Amino acid sequence: MRLQFLLGEIGNGLRRNLSMAVSVVIVTMISMYLLGLGLMGQRQVDTMKDYWYDRVQVTVLLCAEKTRYANCAGQATSEEQRATIKQELESLRPTVSEIFYESRAEAFGRFKETYKNSPLARAGESYFADSYRVNLADPNKFDIVASSVKGMPGVADVQDQKKLLEKFFTFMNTVSWSAIALSSLMVLAAVMLISTTIRQAAFSRRRETGIMRLVGASNFTIRFPFVMETVLASVVGAGLAMVMLWGTVKYGVVGFLSTTLTDTAFIGEVDVLSVAPIVILGVVLLATVTSWVTLRRYLRV
Asked: Residue of 84, 189, 225, 234 with fewest CB within 10 Å of its CB?
């Protein structure tokens, strides 16, 4: 009977404060969706790091005619110099795991296929050079390769893809942390809205709570419906946010990006499912604590 009474009070409270409950749902939904985007961004960065760092290469650019690199003196790398450079790279095993030679024409063809809309793809292969592409057993051992071949006759430059990737990952991290920071502001707005909702509900039902107090109802019995109304509205908002996040990942990432950019790794729906329980549990805890603290201040029983 007591449980039935409490459930009835929760239902009546939601009907009386429907507009405020909807407001809590919307604010919670937006804030948790932004938080989810930030968390998914962090997971995407980690996924791409794991994928690309295993494939990171060191590119040893060779000299071409009229090149701008000082070490080349405007001359192309000779066959003898190529052989010497290759021999030096071979001597670095097992730090160097694989060595591939890529001609200027092959480099241009690969770039044109990957970046069809780039102006360089229409400019011609004169912007490219022959190179040795080197896979490392440990991506952090770039300095060993660079110090061994940089400055050798016929070597124009030594490029580390890891450094280029780190700039990209830094940008991705900045975007995801910005989403998390924005969601934090929305969470603050949700806390303030929950507090305001509780205050208004407590004021509008002060007569009922007074009667309950006179008949000997406990603090828990009086406060519990208020708390559960807020928790239910918050959980609905968080649930909708996770559904939106799941749809974004399923159709935006898995359905579009992963089929368009097939040469990289992306997060999937399982990442959303692993985050959703934590987010919803956090929302329950936040709504409960906010409601209870507000009630202790504004609902004297």
From this structure: 189
Pairwise CA distance, residues 180 & 178, whole Å: 5
Tokens linked to 43: 């997971």
Q: What is the pLDDT of residues 110-150, one digit of tens each?
A: 777 665 655 555 656 666 778 888 887 777 777 777 788 88
* Beta pairing partners, 131: 61, 102
Beta bridge partners of 159: 59
What letter does residue 264 receive in the DSSP assignment? S
pTM above 0.70, yes or no: no
CA distances from 18 to 11, 130, 235, 239, 278 (A): 10, 69, 15, 18, 27
50 burial level (CB within 10 Å; 0-12, 13-18, 19+) = exposed
Among 181, 175, 178, 136, smallest CA distance to 44 is for: 175
Query: Which CATH code is given to the segment(s) 57-138?
Result: 3.30.70.3040
